[in-house]
Design goal:
single chain, mainly alpha, 10 helices
Length: about 230
């Protein structure tokens, strides 16, 4: 629960800074704000799942998590204003740590987790909910990779934590993407002060989708190597 409380904060801080840039007329980044909101929406449901499991039952945990989140928020706001690239890098490391933590938890507790039913909020989210808002019609989201709307199994807690691990890996990919200014600028072309990508021609949208798919595929070997290393532990 502590981890998921803190995990939402980077996306709050990024949206704050992007709103500031847009308000000052420096950079209009509607699509980038959308993807950060989508990530926060996903982390919110992780948090709701943890709360349904009693993760916030102890006052000490709530006190530490809330205060850590406030401090972390302002650190990220300042770091984003100084260097968005390094702020995204820090979030990549945090999300990678989350992937590692969940994978270790799954390996060590598989038998027990398979015997515990999934909480209702988890079933509703993964069976019927808007999983990431990543399946919307946008160049920056999962549909751009050609993936179908994901409806993973939710029979027990092992399934749920496996789904959360997969979610966190998607966040890692996005944080890697956001550190590549050239790719972001290219994908965001047409979302500046004058126009939106949604006004672009179908040909341009298809070209942008192809660039996203190429980038996403380039991370598959990295994902495979990371998970192999995790399994070897």
């Amino acid at each position: 629960w502590f981890l998921e409380t803190v995990a939402r904060i980077p996306y709050f801080s990024y949206v704050t800074c992007l709103h500031l840039y847009e308000t000052l007329g420096w950079w209009r980044t509607a699509k980038l704000r959308k993807i950060h909101f989508a990530e926060e929406w996903n982390e919110l449901h992780h948090l709701l799942i943890m709360e349904a499991l009693g993760g916030d039952a102890r006052w000490r945990d709530r006190f530490l998590a809330f205060h850590a989140a406030i401090i972390y928020y302002w650190i990220l706001v300042v770091s984003f204003l100084v260097s968005p690239k390094y702020s995204y890098k820090f979030s990549e490391l945090l999300e990678t740590h989350a992937v590692s933590t969940y994978r270790t938890f799954l390996v060590e507790n598989e038998a027990k987790l398979r015997q515990i039913p999934a909480p209702k909020i988890a079933q509703e989210y993964y069976k019927h909910g808007d999983l990431y808002m990543f399946d919307a019609d946008s160049e920056f989201v999962r549909d751009a990779t050609g993936s179908e709307v994901r409806r993973p199994p939710v029979d027990n807690l092992y399934d749920i934590f496996t789904n959360i691990l997969d979610d966190e890996w998607e966040h890692v990919k996005t944080m890697v993407m956001c550190q590549d200014y050239d790719s972001v600028e290219e994908l965001m072309s047409g979302t500046g002060n004058d126009t939106e990508v949604s006004d672009a021609s179908d040909e341009k949208r298809q070209a942008v989708r192809a660039k996203w798919k190429t980038w996403a595929n380039s991370l598959q070997s990295r994902e495979h190597n990371f998970l192999q290393n995790e399994a070897s532990w």
